[in-house]
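seq:
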Amino acid sequence: MLNWLKIKPGKGTPETFFYLRVDDRLIHGQVVIGWGVGLDVNRLVLADDRLAASAAEREFYRQIIPETMGGTVVSLAEALELTGELRQPGRRAIVVVGRVEDAMRWVETGQHPDLLILGGLHSREGRERLTDYLYLTPQEIEQLREAAGRGVRVVCRDLPTSEGIDFLAALGQRPR
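struct:
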């Protein structure tokens, strides 16, 4: 098994990392407590154009993120501009986006995260089940295959305490 599938909170967590998480629920307890607190994140960014355009929603989500995590809610363009800062030594950063196509913006610009985490894309029309917490459209599957083909490490993982599944391996294991 690849080491990047075994990231565990505390001992063994890299001193510096930039993870990109795709979760259609965006910021919620599992992200803040499980990922943020669990991995001692010091920069948690929610990148969403719609939320960033609304002062009330931006403030609501910012309030969910503890101050110690340097939380912010920004547009996708602004988040992409932050990538250099997110890679600074000692920075333990997670950017959360709600859609695979949003995550692909980093891939397309060559600003690959250390890990692209598929954390929660839930069932809806047109999506196929990959895991209990991950449903994808055929287009999303192709986009993620493209990301993996460009050298991006893509993992299916709902919690940092759970065992990650390599995305390409999960495609071979999904129910028919």
